[in-house]
Amino acid sequence: MRSGAKVAIVGGVFAVVASGVGYGGYNLYNGITGGDSDLTSRSGSAPRTGPVTAEEVSGTARDFLTAWAAGESDKAAQLTNDPVAAGPAVAAYREGARVSKAVITPGTAVGPTVPFTVKATISYEGVSKDLSYASELTVVRGQTTGRPLVKWQPAVLHPKLTAAATLRTGVAKTASVKAVDRDGVELTAEKYPSLRPVLNELRRRYGSKAGGTAGVETWIDSGSEGVADTPLLVLSKGKPGTLRTTIDADVQAAAEKAVKDFDSASVAAIEPSTGAIRAVANNPATDFDTALQGQQAPGSTMKIVTAAMMMEHGLAKPGSPVECPSSVSWMGVPFHNLKNFSIENGTLTDAFSRSCNTAFIKAIGPLDHKDIADTALGATARRWFGIGEEWNIGVGAWDGSVPESAGAETAASYIGQGKVTMSALNVASLSATAKNGAFLQPYLVARDLDDREFAKAERLPDEVARGLRLMMTEAATSRLGTATNAMAGVPSPKGAKTGSAEVDGQGRSNSWFTGYSGDLAAAAVVQSGGHGGDAAGPVVARVLKAG
What we know:
Layout: E1 6-10, E2 13-19, H1 54-69, H2 73-78, H3 83-97, E3 99-106, E4 113-124, E5 127-141, E6 148-150, E7 166-171, E8 177-180, H4 196-206, E9 216-221, E10 230-236, E11 241-244, H5 249-259, E12 265-270, E13 277-283, H6 290-293, H7 303-312, E14 327-330, E15 333-336, H8 348-353, H9 357-362, H10 376-385, H11 408-414, H12 424-436, H13 462-477, H14 484-487, E16 494-501, E17 510-517, E18 520-526, H15 536-546
Parallel strand pairs: 8-11
Antiparallel strand pairs: 1-2, 2-3, 3-4, 4-5, 5-6, 7-9, 9-10, 12-13, 12-18, 14-15, 16-17, 17-18
Helix pairs in contact: 5-15, 7-10, 7-13, 12-13
């Protein structure tokens, strides 16, 4: 057998190996059939229909992986349902990434899906290292031919590849960066997994400003302007420049642990007196940073802004009596409190601390206050809390949005539903603004690194700031406060607000919670977590205790 692709048994399963000059044109089989040896004999007959069989799945996977490992991009492409896209992608895998050898080991099929592992040897200018990862492919029936084919998507070649992205090896496009926290502690993705997309983005933006030099790496080139590349392997290190961030390693570590208690959770923490971001964490930790870029309804945490709007327009003060019936109608659409509770002879502080939806809707009313109903909330959010201004924190982040609304959506927006969307960072900033008395745009790296413009907002009137802190303290400390249990043990001075946001098609609401303690504010969201104090509350409490 001449040098090229060959079959081996690794751990009792079929493995495909391709190396050296054998990348071109050596095939193990008598024609690639996609696991269907009867195709030629059935020429002219009707295409096969129905689900793919186990034999077709194993045969098609074997043939595709063999052709891929052998560098036979055209043959591999013909075994997919999109050969036009697959062929160049398979060819680019070998050529762009400088893969000199590949060992692909299929696992046990689960229905039409076959998992496999790849051990690719990357070689560049005399240096070689292995890149190992897992992926999977799915076999489907061709719509016109009836042949079993690999359902093409770039993630077959690597789970982080997209249609616009490519795998590359060479001198890195940006210099190496050693990111450190506020006290000089090094921050790595290995120790703080949630920071991986942050660190990648900081490197892309500030690598040339940190004084380092580029090394030789393998990375996924995003193919999109303004989107950070994803490093996969370092063949030879450059000289990293040091980049100081605002992260606090201890708070970050607490945040990382806190979100792991849930399948899907995000948290962000801010220093109210400066706007410095002290922690950002997500579980699962993916390339999309939900804590910074998520766009979700914030639920009743929005009542911080709604209460400020009510005080601004003279509708109520913390001690003002407000009605809190079990339900209320807004232009014919009913709104309810949790379990239809009501408060007799209550104040705005009572309604806030116990999270009475109806009080915040009824006090404004579409007929009584037509001049402010649809637009005032967004105006207050922007003017005093910076929501909707352009936030330039040092990496990509959502600015928050409270758009003009109409009809029942207006009432929904007062309790953080409707078209209102925020991230955990946005909601943490609501607490930070209430605690500080003024909005300070959150940031991850110093402004003078690139002279970027920070978002600005007007200072809260003293009466409004004191009112918000009073109500948030009541929510976090009073016997009936919805945040009291979660905030027990969190040092004073402290304040908080719970929230739950209903999502169409989702059985349980998302759990939201925001609060502050001393000079640290935080907010968390737990997907399908239910009541804010039950899921997101403990996440925030753990972060605040670490501050």
